[in-house]
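EI: anyone free to look at a 367-residue chain?
SC: sure, send it
EI:
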Amino acid sequence: MNEMSQVSSRNSVEIKNLDLSFGAVKVLQDLNLDIHQGEFLVLLGSSGCGKSTLLNCIAGLLEITGGQIWIGGKNVTWAEPSERGIGMVFQSYALYPQMTVRGNLSFGLKNARLPKEDIESRVARAAEILQIEPLLDRKPGALSGGQRQRVAIGRALVRDVDVFLFDEPLSNLDAKLRADLRVELKTLHQRLGNTMIYVTHDQVEAMTLADRIAIMKGGQIMQLSSPDVIYNKPQNLYVADFIGSPSMNFMHGHLENGVFTAGDLRLPMEGYEYSAPQVSDGPAILGIRPEHVVTGELVASCPVQTEVKVELVEPMGSDTLVYAPLGKERFRIRMDGQAKVSPGETLPIGLVPAKGSLFDKSSEERL
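SC: here you go
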């Protein structure tokens, strides 16, 4: 069997048993990841989780300690970055200030000694796709942050590669520009169909851009799945707490015969989809997202009903966030933006345990 036949043609990038250490510090540990052809995969996690390090390993900017990296069916573990068939966009724009936009886009192609006609064609195509044609004769100092980032993306685009790597490309922009460019990136991916690997710590970017999300912690992947699955069926307590703003509410209690008990509350788990065919009784944690706490007229139809005393109210425009103690926990409740509620008042709420996420208290894995 030759090397080419060892890699699935469905996968654009494959990471096999990847290890990276700096001295005695293990940064990435036995990491495996298959990225499908044409997929938009987001590496998501807090600072120091290893997401940018993994991206730099794929790019060839860091020498790995062990394992293999395959791109486009080729083992590129020890290949130079220029030989890997990738285009990379960094957090900083990294543009040459003395060159025009046209010069920045064509610089790498000229170094590669491509024919002049080919260079002009690639620059024109990238400028059209990114809508920066009027900017071609300007220098970076005359551009806004969003325009500079488009140029940085264009510089990767002109390389005409199959795999694009993005290292937090929107983090230096203000909120509105981030939202605008997020839409443009998604449109770009739909138009090109290239494989894109995108690093961010921003949940909104991950949820809106990704076909799949790999949530990382301590150099390992905690969960790899679609945004919908990660949000609604987190694999463990870490993912459940990390994803969502505000984050999931948690109740510490005990599971016995299909009923979760926390203090005076009894929550029958009827209709809940367990991850395993057999689940043992014992200490457990039930997570309920703020939007799944029912208020108003629908409370009467919920299997579990109780009352809480409102502690804090945060008007968010489209939503209103209410904070209230429930037993030993401080619950977050997402209500309609027009909801009239004040600190100190009593608020009837309903809970639907089947919509929650149940975790084993010891392993913190989903039940």
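EI: The radius of gyration is 25 Å.
SC: 👍
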